[in-house]
């Protein structure tokens, strides 16, 4: 583990973007490979330069398939979140309550991941928190020059990974939750955290 | 020649790149590999999937590279090696692998990485060691994809990896052939 004194290692932010974008495509490919399962037909597009061209593809190919993709991307995010919180909050005092945790997410976590804070936090004080980001960093660099509805549909899978990150962070802090995200007008998006009632 | 590329790479890193903490990158990559291992079980398939991911990334990343570096065409493959290690790797990963073992005909070289942001604090499970998982294989794909976009068909593969207990982490890059320059097909 890196010592507290060592300066944080930095990389180019576009490396992260390239990776997370391709990650979504890769998980969709794993689903297609599962359904092909014919032996010889494995990965017919391997090495095809056109495979990487263009943006997200059309995701109306069956809810079951996309649910599997959702599950994978969310889990990838979950594992990241679990480990990330250990690095971000090493020196933190223990949180006083759930709201304290969510505020931490809105400030320090968002800063770490997206170099800005959440723009707006709402809660019903009964376990539901809505985090609004008016300019979600991972969207600001994606092309979205199509009509709104189409763009929204295409970017949806790219939200599943950050949802998992948030759920993983909360989980490691002892909080069970459900996290969903939605975007109606790019590049803004909201994350809704529902914290399960303690038994 | 190497020195001017190093200066260029350092300058781009310092002045033209948005930087972020590498933790997210390292953890995300690790989590992706873990997911692929779950999905495919067979490590050689995981290697292939990582390479393919890298290939796709490489085909897009080259534009970013060319835009920021504004370099012209390399005179030969040796120059390509220097460009890749001192400008390419520096710009994106903030590392500068050493170029070694250039073949006599100049068509092969090795990149030796003394640090690797993909693999910080990573330990491979025993099975991955036995069954030859090349953890950072995405890098080989990135090399293949990006160089293909500038008319070089290459094979890139890991020779050794400190993650596997080897002394050094070495990627071998072989020029297969130069590709015909194609008339651009228009907008992406």
TrEMBL record, chain A:
InterPro entries: NO_sig/Golgi_transp_ligand-bd (IPR024096), TRAPP_component (IPR007194), TRAPPC6/Trs33 (IPR037992)
Protein name listed in UniProt: Trafficking protein particle complex subunit 33
Stretch list, region Disordered: 39-59
Record-stated family: Belongs to the TRAPP small subunits family. BET3 subfamily.
Organism of derivation: Linnemannia exigua
Top-level division of the source organism's lineage: Eukaryota
Biological process terms in GO annotation: endoplasmic reticulum to Golgi vesicle-mediated transport
CDD domains: TRAPPC6A_Trs33
GO cellular component, one term: TRAPP complex
Automatic annotation (TrEMBL), chain B:
InterPro entries xref list: Bet3, NO_sig/Golgi_transp_ligand-bd, TRAPP_component
One Gene Ontology cellular component: endoplasmic reticulum
This protein's UniProt keywords: Endoplasmic reticulum, ER-Golgi transport, Golgi apparatus, Transport
Subcellular compartments: Endoplasmic reticulum; Golgi apparatus, cis-Golgi network
Single GO BP term: macroautophagy
Pfam families according to UniProt: TRAPP
Gene3D superfamilies in the record: Trafficking protein particle complex subunit 3 (3.30.1380.20)
Similarity remark: Belongs to the TRAPP small subunits family. BET3 subfamily.
Protein name as catalogued: Trafficking protein particle complex subunit BET3
Phylogenetic placement of the source organism: Eukaryota, Fungi, Fungi incertae sedis, Mucoromycota, Mortierellomycotina
């Amino acid at each position: 583990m890196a010592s507290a004194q060592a300066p944080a290692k930095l990389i180019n932010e576009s490396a992260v973007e390239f990776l997370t974008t391709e990650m979504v495509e890769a998980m969709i490919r794993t689903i297609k490979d599962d359904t092909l399962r014919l032996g010889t037909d494995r990965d017919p597009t391997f090495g095809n330069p056109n495979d990487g061209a263009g943006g997200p593809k059309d995701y109306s190919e069956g809810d079951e398939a996309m649910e599997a993709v959702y599950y994978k991307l969310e889990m990838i995010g979950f594992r990241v979140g679990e480990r990330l919180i250990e690095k971000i909050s090493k020196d933190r005092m223990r949180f006083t309550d759930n709201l304290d945790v969510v505020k931490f997410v809105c400030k320090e976590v968002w800063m770490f991941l997206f170099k800005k804070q959440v723009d707006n936090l709402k809660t019903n004080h009964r376990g539901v928190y809505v985090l609004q980001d008016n300019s979600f960093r991972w969207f600001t660099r994606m092309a979205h020059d199509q009509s709104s509805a189409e763009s929204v549909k295409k970017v949806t899978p790219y939200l599943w990974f950050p949802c998992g990150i948030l759920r993983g962070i909360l989980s490691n802090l002892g909080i069970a939750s459900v996290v969903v995200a939605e975007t109606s007008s790019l590049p803004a998006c909201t994350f809704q955290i529902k914290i399960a009632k303690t038994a | 020649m190497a020195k001017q590329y190093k200066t260029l790479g350092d300058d781009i890193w310092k002045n033209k790149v948005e930087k972020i903490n590498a933790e997210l990158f390292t953890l995300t990559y690790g989590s992706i590999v873990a997911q692929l291992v779950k999905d495919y079980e067979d490590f050689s398939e995981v290697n292939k999937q990582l390479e393919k991911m890298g290939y796709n990334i490489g085909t897009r990343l080259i534009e970013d590279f060319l835009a920021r570096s504004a370099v012209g065409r390399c005179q030969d493959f040796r120059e390509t090696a220097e460009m890749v290690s001192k400008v390419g790797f520096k710009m994106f990963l903030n590392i500068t692998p050493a170029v070694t073992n250039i073949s006599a005909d100049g068509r092969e070289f090795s990149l030796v990485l003394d640090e690797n942001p993909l693999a910080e604090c990573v330990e491979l499970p025993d099975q991955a060691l036995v069954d030859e998982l090349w953890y950072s294989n995405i890098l080989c794909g990135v090399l293949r994809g990006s160089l293909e976009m500038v008319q070089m068909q290459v094979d890139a593969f890991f020779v050794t990896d400190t993650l596997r207990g080897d002394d050094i982490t070495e990627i071998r890059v072989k020029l297969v052939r130069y590709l015909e320059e194609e008339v651009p097909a228009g907008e992406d």
